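Quick illustration for those who missed Monday's session on complexes.
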Amino acid sequence: MRRRRVAILISGGGSNMLALARDMAAADHPAEVCLVLANRPEAGGLVRARELGLPVAAVDHRAFGADRAAFEAAMARPLAESGAEILCLAGFMRVLTPRFIAAWEGRMLNIHPSILPLFPGLDTHARALAAGMAVHGCTVHEVTAELDSGPILGQAVIAVEAGDTPASLAARLLPMEHRLYPAVLRRFASGDRRPVAILG
Ligand code: GAR
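Prediction with glycinamide ribonucleotide bound:
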């Protein structure tokens, strides 16, 4: 079977990108990395991707001011050149326009650090604690025009423990993200959209 070409979009350290890329290095994987694209040239994940020998590119959103459409047009070029068929947002912290999202509808995934539909947006760990949650988690979903609201493709959960802080929750959740996202991508790239559930 021909492997689907996946572009991974990052903004920072890219640990989820690395988890996806390492899994895609397996010979039996239905997908391969065609590009790691960052909206910040200084993103630490770009260095780590280069070390793995992955193709990388950066499009600095700050060069486009408030013009999101121009930023996205600039991203569309390297994406098209890479032959990307699937986009994985992995700690990509820019809001995308409905037009860009429509162009990738059904082919763009995101990982979000909460049990959606709870806590869309930012500061998810602090909000889960403030709400008195006994469990917390992460979600991989299809990206649709409404923020953090597309069809759920997988979730992983962890217990909230006494004394947890936003930082401790984030640190315990990240390894679960690294298990969940590759598991979801494997299924998704082989045409199977049944959700993955991982209980920590
Ligand atoms: C991850 O926790 C991811 O879930 C979160 O950012 C972190 C990126 O870490 N994403 C969002 O908050 C998306 N709104 P990474 O760069 O090490 O993968």
